[in-house]
Design goal:
Number of domains: 1
CATH topology: M1 Pyruvate Kinase, Domain 3
CATH architecture: Beta Barrel
Number of strands: 19
Radius of gyration: 17 Å
Shape: globular
Helix content: 10-25%
InterPro entries: MoCF_Sase_C (IPR005302), MOCOS_middle (IPR005303), Pyrv_Knase-like_insert_dom_sf (IPR011037)
Oligomer: single chain
Order of helices and strands: EEEEEHEEEHEEHEEHHEEEHEEEE
Pfam families: MOSC, MOSC_N
């Protein structure tokens, strides 16, 4: 196995950037999910998991690192992330601030994605609050653990573009590898170049993969596939449709496209 592609998403719930290498520290991918929008009214982190309010974020693209992160709006305008609250509030129709500080106990709204599919993106479905980054040290706005990995075996079986699942690492697997092989990696370790990852959870899927991503149309099959073929009992969360794997960083270093991936 080896790394096929690497991704970083500087602003939570926006499109990100494909890179040839990624620096990884104990908090995850450096520069990943460093910025997030905060709903001024409720103080919650904005995420397209709640598509009724936030799906337009997936029409924006973020790139860069540190103070050089930029956001490209749907109309083509490019603005510095730290100065983007005004244009983004206008786009979303909701007042937001831009933050680089994840507060303790930060939450998002996470409606059941199958309810959203059944009732429509603008339906008022029950949206429980979910604490993010429960498996991540530091202040980045990741959903659970610092690194998200998915294999080509799973993507090919589902027929879904990698970017819809928002991984950091896409692993090329040998011919004949079964889909959802990531489930079998729990309790083991992944060595990628000089980086060691410890898998933590299968990745539960939300509404995000089904939504428009830039010019890509909606894709209900991105949720229906895992729902039909890979429901997993995720510790602490229940039985959920899953695709991919979350992991924590045990030994930091650098991922590079083409690096060998070993499982022990």
């Amino acid at each position: 196995m080896k790394i096929r592609s690497l991704y970083r998403y500087p602003v939570k719930s926006m499109l990100g950037e494909e890179l040839g290498s990624l620096e990884v520290d104990t908090h995850g991918v450096v520069g990943d999910r460093v910025f997030a929008l905060i709903d001024t009214e409720h103080g919650r982190v904005a995420t397209a998991k709640q598509p009724r309010h936030w799906r337009a974020l997936l029409r924006c693209r973020s790139a860069g690192s540190g103070s050089e992160v930029t956001v490209v709006l749907p109309d083509g305008r490019s603005v510095a992330a730290e100065s983007a609250a005004g244009p983004l509030s206008e786009l979303l129709g909701r007042a937001v601030t831009v933050s680089t500080r994840r507060s303790d106990g930060a939450v998002v709204e996470r409606p059941d994605p199958e309810d959203v599919l059944a009732r429509g993106l603008d339906a008022e479905v029950d949206a429980p609050l979910l604490e993010i980054a429960q498996g991540a040290p530091g202040g980045r706005f990741v959903d659970h653990s610092p690194v998200h990995v998915i294999t080509t075996a799973t993507l090919d079986e589902l027929g879904v573009e990698a970017l819809r699942y928002r991984p950091n690492v896409v692993v090329t697997t040998p011919a004949g590898t079964p889909a959802f092989v990531e489930n079998d990696w729990l309790g083991r370790t992944l060595t990628i170049g000089g980086v060691t990852l410890v898998p933590t959870l299968p990745t539960p899927r939300c509404s995000v993969p089904t939504l428009e991503h830039g010019d890509l149309p909606r894709a209900p099959e991105a949720l229906r596939g895992p729902a039909q073929r890979n429901r997993v009992d995720v510790p602490g969360f229940g039985v959920l449709p899953c695709a991919g794997l979350y992991a924590r960083v045990e030994v930091p270093g650098t991922f590079r496209r083409g690096d060998a991936v070993e499982i022990a």
